[in-house]
Amino acid sequence: MKIEEIKGILTGKPQEADLAKIAADERKGVKKLFSAYLRKLKREEEEIARFAKLLSYERQYWSSGLLHIAGVDEAGRGPLAGPLVVAAVILSQDTFLSGLDDSKKVAEATRKRLYDEILQAAVAVTVKVVSVSEIDRYNIYQATKSAMKDVLKNLKVAPEMALIDAMPLELPALPTISIIHGDALSASIAAASIIAKVMRDGIMEQLSDAYPAYDFAANKGYGSPKHLEAIRKHGATIWHRHTYEPVKSLLKGGQTAYSEETGSLIVLK
Predict the structure, then answer these.
(1) How far apart, in Å, are the Cα atoms of 198 and each of 104, 107, 111, 192?
(2) Residue 260 predicted with pLDDT over 80
(3) Global pTM?
(4) Percent of the chain having pLDDT more than 90?
(5) What are the backbone dihedrals phi and psi of residue 6, each rounded to the nearest 5 degrees, phi first?
(6) Backbone region of residue 21 per phi and psi (left: phi > 0; alpha: psi in -120 to 50; beta: other values)
(7) Distances in whole angstroms, Cα of residue 173 to Cα of each of 176, 201, 207
(8) Which of the two residues, 250 and 8, has the higher pLDDT score?
(9) What phi and psi, each to the nearest 5 degrees, are found at residue 245?
(10) What is the third-level CATH fold of 66-267?
(11) Angstrom distance (rounded) from CA 93 to CA 59
(12) For residue 76, how many C-alpha atoms fall within 13 Å in the half-sphere facing its CB?
């Protein structure tokens, strides 16, 4: 076989007979291709094993007869500007999402790919976008807690168990478990973290177009030097959390007005 023909075979789904011929080929180019193929197989096997481990919490409850396990996570508790986004995701038992992990550990391009794959593969996905007004009025802890309850109550398929990233949560007739670093330990929570992060990043990129001085596309609302300098120079926008320091202290002339906008509940699937 020619080198290009072998490359095509190894790129697809090679038959055992073809693999035996390629493995026996003594040409250096073929040996290089075959070694690369074996390394790829090993990476794929390792990823399947890693993902299986990430499903350990879900499998525990699936094996007890519970089918619909929701994972819940948020994006945006710490930034000085922009909304909080909370997501709930129910995955099916046959789901495999290569590269799924805590959204903070995943490259932007991979997050966007996973976002689409999660929406396609999930049983149900619901998101709550919590406004800056709500965060300032109720404080971030209470706003997060309330939003997590909202997304769980509004999933298209009612969950039988909820896995929550770090937040203790009580809901009538719905067992919940709070998992510290849950976005790195549960596939459902990790999927929710991806949905929340990608959606929030998209909002901040849109806000960057409207408020270019604050560099929201780059800092996502966190207190980068350029962002803080913009607040000193131009004051805070309606998208800034006026109860957060150092925004509170940097406001010009005691500026306190902010939007009365309420958040949005979005059922994605």
Answers:
(1) 11, 11, 7, 10
(2) no
(3) 0.88
(4) 73
(5) -65, -40
(6) alpha
(7) 10, 34, 39
(8) 8
(9) -90, 145
(10) Nucleotidyltransferase; domain 5 (3.30.420)
(11) 8
(12) 34
Largest Cα span, the chain: 79
Amino acid identity of residue 92, one-letter, is: S
- Rounded CA-CA distance 141/146 in Å is 9
User: What does pLDDT average to over the chain?
Assistant: 92
Confidence band for 252, pLDDT divided at 50, 70 and 90: low
Question: Does the pLDDT value for residue 262 go beyond 70?
Answer: no
Query: Is the pLDDT assigned to residue 255 strictly greater than 90?
Result: no
Helix (H, G, I), strand (E, B) or coil at 187: helix
Interacting residues of 200 by C-beta distance below 8 A, sequence separation 6+:
75, 76, 82, 83, 84, 85, 220
Q: Give every CB contact of residue 110 below 8 A, 6+ residues apart in sequence.
A: 99
Tokens of residue 11, six digits? 């790129």
54, burial (CB in 10 Å: exposed 0-12, middle 13-18, buried 19+): buried
CA 2, chain centre distance (Å): 44
Nearest-angstrom CA–CA distance, 255 and 117: 43
Structure tokens at 146: 């309330």
Per-residue pLDDT reduced to its tens digit, 61-91: 999 999 999 999 999 999 999 999 999 999 9
Token code pair at residue 252: 């010009």
